[in-house]
Specification:
10 strands; 46% helix; homodimer; alpha/beta; 4-stranded parallel beta sheet; 15% strand; 13 helices; Rossmann fold; globular; 6-stranded mixed beta sheet
């Protein structure tokens, strides 16, 4: 099933009481700096610290009761694991999260805090898939992938839906792109509600598979990502790619240096904690004239980063 | 003139288009941790990064045009200086900010960025007062003090006014207390709109002059403050003290260790940047049973802190 705009609206109704309607913030200084009017949709302030809670909650709430009771499972060393754990706890069903034993302790702690069972595995993709397969067979749980899933994509699109309802006449909306769930969900919402507006993706130059995939017309695997933006190292998903081909205006790339500078601006000027991935769209907006004099919506994707372990060189920008 | 509740409502109308109506955030995790229902009014997301913009804007907008044209002046090494500079720029009048030459470069930069004239002086209070007096005589500017001023107090109270309008049935509201402008303005707003609710102040144990002043019934000077919360080292003002005696339930004190732990929770769990002073009320709520099972409003006062210079030991709390 390919998701569509109606799916985003349904998702919005379905998850409404389980997620935060996050604020939209503005900054005179960042408007001056960019030459645009920027509207920041703060998914870093979302429950579990990222937009992922929307997609996971929509997927978990879409399961029929019999299926749901057997639980849900995924593999993730990042925000999707914590989001799924939270969504499952809220519905009162088990969650199993396969994580490499090499993942940072802070990631384990986030998933464990929401009461999920953590299944440790080796560091390779094959290790993860084998461990997940084993969990699914033993428990009968339903696999909820991080982005290549209609209900997940529709859920991620609800952030843009809220943004478009809160701010009129946006010219452009821009999100980070890793697996493509957020970008494709956003494109579905924006193209239906604000047909005149364009949707952009932004990604690190060291993980530019989305850019190359759109240019070449087929999914290009992300073999050796090299970027500080740990949330954007995945290869694009099949469903997101299909939507992006039709509804995304362009993908912009930025350097890690630009990401760190944008992150510093968001921390010091807007007083919000964002992870590197979340700073990528602002970095893109500051790096081109394409957004000048426009009304631009930016989805700030998440805030899960250790303030004691900031990237070195996050100095005055 | 002593400020009253009507002054807060007037201030709210007067500054409405010049300040952010900041969001009220909640956190399931901090509710669980505190045993209370907490509503955070995010003045760290206010323009210029602190509630001070409210009071300064109200004071500047209250001046008649002839007086305003001659400019405004203050002495401040903190948020009030930047707030006054911003408020003056918005009205198109000059601002003069007297700052000790020992103040951090980042504070100078904030004031200068808003176009104020910075007047350097020596580090003592006598130096500052002499420099200010000199500015006032030379320019005819109006002195806008940081807290001991009716329009400033009324302006600071507008944050609580918005909070009480946004969240029904609060049992308690708590703010940090330094000079007392925010706490007294808050008490005026809360006692009028939610007469059943109590207003509390919270301050560092190493700068507990407000606590001692209320106990002894007269203002106790803060001679040698010793706390990380740099915004709360001032001695209580005369006008704030008069209001607090009648309308504040109690002042709670917390250690610097508790402040740092609360600051860490706000950064990592709520994903917002707060300065140490802003974490003081949450530290107080976590340190007592007095707020258990209540609906508690917390004014997060500001977010002006350098993420690269976090207090050491802001470790996992």
């Amino acid at each position: 099933m390919e998701p569509d705009h109606a799916g985003v609206v349904q998702a919005s109704e379905r998850i409404r009481t389980h997620v935060h309607q996050t604020p939209v913030l503005t900054s005179t200084l960042l408007d001056e700096r960019s030459g645009a009017q920027l509207f920041f949709k703060c998914e870093n302030l979302q429950r579990a610290g990222a937009f992922k809670t929307r997609g996971a909650t929509n997927a978990v709430r879409s399961l029929v009761q019999d299926t749901a009771q057997r639980g849900v499972a995924t593999h993730s060393s990042g925000n999707h694991g914590a989001a799924l754990a939270l969504a499952a706890r809220e519905r009162g069903i088990p969650a199993h999260v396969v994580m490499p034993h090499t993942a940072p302790a802070i990631k384990h702690a986030a998933v464990a805090a929401y009461g999920a069972e953590i299944v440790s595995c080796g560091p390779t993709l094959a290790d993860r898939e084998a461990a997940l397969q084993n969990v699914l067979e033993q428990t009968g749980a339903t696999f909820i992938p991080p982005y290549d899933h209609a209900h997940v994509i529709a859920g991620q699109g609800t952030a843009a839906l809220e943004l478009c309802r809160a701010v009129s006449d946006l010219d452009q909306v821009i999100t980070p792109v890793g697996g493509g769930g957020l970008l494709s969900g956003t494109a579905l919402a924006v193209s239906a509600i604000m047909p005149g507006a364009e949707t952009y993706g932004a990604e690190p130059a060291g993980a530019d598979d989305a850019c190359r995939s759109l240019q070449l017309g087929s999914i290009q695997p992300m073999d050796a990502p090299d970027t500080i933006a740990d949330g954007l190292r995945s290869t694009l998903g099949r469903l997101p790619f299909a939507i992006m081909r039709r509804r995304v205006a362009d993908i912009l790339t930025v350097t890690d240096r630009e990401i760190i500078d944008a992150m510093h601006l968001l921390w010091t000027r807007m007083k919000i904690v964002v992870e590197p991935s979340a700073a990528v769209p602002l970095a893109a907006v500051l790096g081109t004239d394409r957004f000048r004099d426009r009304r631009v919506g930016i989805i700030l994707s998440g805030g899960n980063v250790d303030p004691q372990a900031l990237p070195s060189g996050m100095s005055d920008a």
